[in-house]
Hints:
Structural class: mainly alpha
Radius of gyration: 19 Å
Domain Vta1/callose synthase N-terminal: 14-153
CATH superfamily of the largest domain: Vacuolar protein sorting-associated protein vta1
Protein name: Vta1 domain-containing protein
Number of strands: 0
Largest sheet: none
Order of helices and strands: HHHHHHHHH
Family: Belongs to the VTA1 family.
Region (Disordered): 155-213
InterPro entries: Vta1-like, Vta1/CALS_N, Vta1/CALS_N_sf, Vta1_C
Shape: elongated
Distance between the termini: 30 Å
Amino acid sequence: MVLATPPEPLKKFARICKIAQDYENTDPVITYYCRLYVASMGLKPEYNCKESRDFITKLLDFLTAAKKTNSEDPLYTEESVGLDYVQNKALDLFTLAFKKDESGDFGAATVNAFLVAGYLFEVLTLNGETKEEITNARKYAKFKVVHIIDCKKRGKQPTAGPLKEGDASSVPKIDGLSDNASLPESASHQPEHLSPKPAASTTDPAGKNFDLSTETCEKASKAAKFAISSLQYKDRDSAIEYLKQALSLLSSD
């Protein structure tokens, strides 16, 4: 599916796009908020190129259709409700991975549960920074993924549980540990090697820079601000329309 593979300038969001695809049939709410996050992040100036705008437009079309189909479901119509759902899913996955890791199970299921939990915690930053315990859980999950994969590559035994206090491996304070989390079947494979992604280009494939006029910047910025205001009142339809206006302005300059 085209939404599972972002263009090169948005490659840093490839994993979240893949998670969105993996959950599309089993947990569409997760898919919705993963794509909403990518669409929101993709509107930043550093991703302003034709490839990115085309991809974000497709994401916005998906979000509009999903919102219309689920117009009476608060998981879609009330962002705070939907993000609470995503948080609970992330915490369940984190708990599952933590218990497996603590018991010495360093298999693909453990790594992927940490991996998906970490990215879902990132999705929760859609409306700003998360609470300290969520931020710490995200750091711990990402630390564990890198630690386990690195140990396996070097032929060493990973350390079960935290390595030491006071760093990213410290156990975050998470209440309500449970065993009811599960990964979608398509996400149960061993993840690819995690490495820093190159900075996104702000040019199109032909090498043309998208220099914006002051007037266009002001109009696009105004539309984006209206979108943010609409989200504050949980009016997603208006927010999406304003975001489309901003994209249209950026595309036509």
